[in-house]
Amino acid sequence: MFGNVSGSKRVIEHLESDIPHHSLNVGNKRMRSDGHWDAKPYMDFDSFEEEMQNMMGKTRMMMEEKEQSCQQLSMHQQVLCNELQQRDNFIQQLQKAKLEEQQKSQLEIYRLEHELYTMGNLLEGYRKALKESHKAFSEYRARCQLPVEPIYKDTGSGGLVLSTMEFEKQRLKQEEEERLNRVLLEKLVKEFESECIPKFEGHENTVKLLRDKLLVVGDKFNLLKEMYVKRKMLEMSECVATEDCSTAKESVPAEECVSAEESVSAVVHAPTEESVPVVERSPSEESVPMEECVPTEG
Fold it and tell me: Which segments carry the region annotation Disordered (predicted)?
């Protein structure tokens, strides 16, 4: 702006410097033509004043145009400065991001180099351990040697390798032997079934008979159990009767008490005598079917 103002000042000075020369030249012309310099002083001053006003108007217009152009230039300059500042900030951000990325990549490179160095040392240790294990294994094989086995199992003890046809013949022969063995085993199984299944059936019948007899014995055992309970009840009633007899001993004779005791004992022992033949009869009766089923097993 200051530079433009100085330029406008130069324009004004130029105009002012041109005005007197023009007026002097006009005055000289008038002096030459008229020869009287002070003839029309007021008219020269008025014309000069009008000319000065015109020049000042033009100068003001020029100054306004210059000021507008200066303002526009300053606005453009401010916009350019702002854009330049934004670009500088963007460049700084890019540089900062690039620097951070470089630092990160450098750190990653250092880490990978360290891991590579560590893995190299580990691999070297594994190689040394593998060499030592191979060496120890070779020493062990030298100390404990095994008999040499043929590479191919179908060659026998170091013989020639069989051809495809010979190998197929051996396979068929082996399959035939396996088939014969299966037939023999099936025959043995059938013979065993024919011999043992009737025995198993006879045993099954015997078991059924024993089951039925066991049920009969269970029923008899329940009957004996009931009789035993009845006897216990009679004994308890006898005890009660004896207590009554002891209390009434003075009123009842001794012979009547003895006869009463004998009658009670006879009643108590009567079921036991009947139960003895039942117990003895059951095994004898059960033994007969057992003897009858023995020939069936033969």
Answer: 269-298
